[in-house]
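Example record

Each entry pairs one chain with its bound ligand, MRU.
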Amino acid sequence: MPLPPTVRWADHRLYLLDQTLLPHEVVEVEQHDVAQLVDSIQRLVVRGAPAIGVAGAYGVALAVRDGGDLHEQAALLAGARPTAVNLGWAVQRVVRRGERAVTAGEGLLAALEDEAAAVHREDQAQCEAIGRHGAPLVADGAGVLTHCNAGALATTGIGTALAPLYAAHEQGTPFQVFADETRPLLQGARLTAWELDRAGIDVEVVVDGAAAHLMARGEVGLVVVGADRVAANGDTANKIGTLGVALAAQRFVVPFYVACPSSTIDLATPDGGAITIEERAAAEVTGAAAPAGVGARNPAFDVTPHDLVTGFITDRGILRAPYGVSLAAG
Ligand code: MRU
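Structure tokens for the complex follow.
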């Protein structure tokens, strides 16, 4: 059975697959206004850099459908989560199309819907291209480790980090996936394991701390992760814990690839130090386990320095160092 769409726009209405309920319940929720959509993005009802970009793009149309101010509502959407560049990029792109439509005396809502649909289609095509370019990296019988969920659920297509795995599986390559559970919100255990298992791909969940151990034992031949923002020099923000995986991969000489669409590459951000890291509620970390009254730090992302990245699997092909040159050339 195909996965339900993460984001759906039909008859001027926006629907999201509620990922907070997965894998136990598959529920689509209509987003009635921008305030609800902002809340949904912040609660990770929709999540993953490309998927929040597409949701934000339709959100601009949603705002104008209900008579909202284009720029005011767009600013609310773009600010919903700070780290993934795709959100601000997609919202801005749709706003600019709206501005051109107004200048040309064209229908505003139709122009916004049209541009959002283009962002949506491009995301799907870019995922397919990432799959095509990345599939040859998956060797027969390889152990492949991934972190968080950069799969179909994080996009509107077949994913970024998981796209090469879907493509290799389709080509008949046998391999095994280790899905880091991804504390604290368990995107690996809940989402990556769910979507790969549904696709018939051999997947096992491991606690985040097991990744280095499996590499030390020679059980991992390839690491592929997604990205929320890639700076001009190749420094890469992704889900918290990615940096530890990259360091272990370097130590045990395992290729570490970042898969991302062009929309995640942010040439305006010079390096990882300039990337805003979202800090989330302490309660996500302390949960029921920590003693009452003890606080927690909860950075949702970390930055992997570019020299730990073996290559970027993008829709334009595999980009290699020096990243300052190869990322800009695309
Ligand atoms: O907090 P999330 O679940 O939105 O974080 C998602 C990730 O870190 C993904 O790896 C990244 O957005 C790439 S998704 C193709």
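Residues 233 and 322 are 8 Å apart (CA to CA).
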